[in-house]
Amino acid sequence: MNNILDTKLKQHHVIMIVSMTAIIFTIIFGFLLYMPLLRVAIKSQKALKSGNEMRDFYLKLPIPLDFRIYFFNVTNPLQVQEGQKPILQEVGPYCYDAYKEKIVIAEDKANDTLTYNPYDTYFFNQTRSGDLSQDDYVTILNPLVVGIINAVAIQKPQFLSAVNKALPIVFKEDYSIYLTTRVRDILFDGVRIDCNVKDFSATALCSQFKGQPVMKEIEKNVFYFSLFGSRNGTVPQQITVYRGIKNGESLGEVVSIDNHTDLQIWPKGSCNKYRGTDGWIFPPFLKDNIDIVAPDLCRNFQAKFVETLRFHNIKVRKYFADLGEANPEDQCFCPAPDKCLPEGVVDLTKCLQVPLMCTLPHFLRVDEKLLQQVEGLHPDTEKHIILIYFESITGTPVVGQRRIQFNLELKTIKKINIMQTVPEALHPILWLEEGVQLEGFLLDKIITASTLLKVVSVGRYITLIGFIEIFAYGCYQAYKDWKLSKVGPAESPSKSVRSSGGQHRKINTQEILKAINFANRKDEATT
């Protein structure tokens, strides 16, 4: 009997030891080291190293971005030239498929960097555009004519009279502050400008067109002007970013653009520093403020955390970004220390070599007085803010919408005939939306990864509870075996009787049997 009890007791001790060991390992690896190990694993998978699927997606998106253009068609162009407020009618979206690719130039393993050229191509998407066509005509503020006038007025006002003479010679029937043309021409194909002129002032003006990114010389002295033609099928920049192999926190951060580690555009050095990723990849475990570099706008943006929500049953973090100069760190974007533009307006003159002003669409989060200068704008945060949804752990963007509006300053200039009676306004031209919402197999990958992380996270609690239950079972059984081992094999259960004093006394059963045997022998002797 004792041998059996000892064997069971040893077995239950083994159960206790094994389960306690499992509990300790679960606590260490499932809780104390869970997040550090998870961080290492995810950072390794997201790093831009050869063989990683993330690198392949980064270099060439398997799906096109949705590139949309909304024009501000002017319904009262003649009245505006007489001093009335512009009345705007939003027309769009004209939708294009934007295919994004990065051509790798070099990798520096020592510095953990990757250098590439962005290569973009755009194709009109008739299905998404609906009834709209690239051959539609729109009337917009003439970006070339008004842009030239504004540039001369700011930089060389002494030449305004010469420009006033040259403009009608160069632009002929298009000489107006407004331009009526086809959508395809203003965006990509180009508006034709014939510079085969003999007038000295006109020739001098045309000489400034050479080398401008928005101008393309098709034949000698014949140019085509378009807003985005220079971006289609060209290699505009060389960008160097960190690969995130040595330091996962620096994944995607911009190191240099065109071999320059900073800009030479803004008055103060802090705004000239590249701060953030290139906007195509982000490190995991994001903070509440995310810095993003926009090379085409020559500045940094900061996306700020708004809320956590569900997207296709994935937990995502929602971020907003704007262009507000009310932030102290953004004061360095002012054109001059003593001259800041209205809140939410960014001057792109030095960046694009064209006097364009950048805002959020419909003057969202812009000084209220600018909204009063025109009619037809209806700012809406959800429609017009820059927004990104990130998967909460891996930091993978599942929704991204970059929204920017381009404007030109309209003001009275007495030396220019067509500008003598115009009202003062920051005049919108168009706004664009470039973004993506993951779907299909890409979204399935995110859902699978998110589900797996959730299962692992819940599983560690279930595992810990299971081992605790096994340990408790082992303890209980060991205790029972220990109690039984204290009762010897010759002993039998005892009974309780009341003594003459009224108290209970335990009497062993074998003692009773001995007493009975003694009484029987005594009776036999008497007989």
Overview of this protein structure:
Its main location: membrane. This is Sensory neuron membrane protein 1. It is found in: Cell membrane. With 527 residues, the protein is α+β, with helices and mostly antiparallel strands. The chain folds into three domains: 2-39 and 456-485; 64-438, no CATH class; 494-526. 34% of the residues lie in helices and 28% in strands. It has helices spanning 2-32, 34-46, 53-59, 77-80, 126-129, 143-155, 160-171, 183-189, 200-207, 269-272, 349-352, 368-371, 381-384, 440-485, 509-526, and strands at residues 65-74, 88-108, 113-124, 137-141, 178-182, 191-194, 215-219, 222-225, 239-242, 254-257, 289-294, 299-311, 314-321, 346-347, 357-359, 386-391, 397-410, 425-437, 494-498, 504-508. The strands form four sheets. Strands 1, 2, 3, 9, 10, 11, 12, 13, 14, 15, 16, 17 and 18 form a 13-stranded antiparallel sheet that branches. A three-stranded antiparallel sheet has the order 6-8-7. It has a two-stranded antiparallel ribbon with strand order 4-5. A hairpin with a 2-residue loop joins strand 12 (299-311) and strand 13 (314-321). Helix 7 crosses helix 9 (200-207). Residues 490-495 have low confidence and may be disordered.
Give a quick set of tags describing it.
527 residues; 3 domains; 15 helices; alpha+beta; 34% helix; 20 strands; three-stranded antiparallel β-sheet; 13-stranded antiparallel β-sheet; elongated
Strand elements, count: 20
> Into which percentage range does the β-strand content fall?
25-35%
Distance between the termini: 43 Å
Radius of gyration from CA coordinates: 39 Å
Secondary structure category: alpha+beta
Number of helices: 15
Tally of individual domains = 3
What is the approximate shape?
elongated
Percent of residues in helices comes to: 25-40%
List the uncertain runs: 490-495
Biggest sheet overview: 13 strands, antiparallel
Mean pLDDT: 87
Region (Disordered): 490-509
Organism: Zophobas morio
GO molecular function: scavenger receptor activity
Subcellular location: Cell membrane
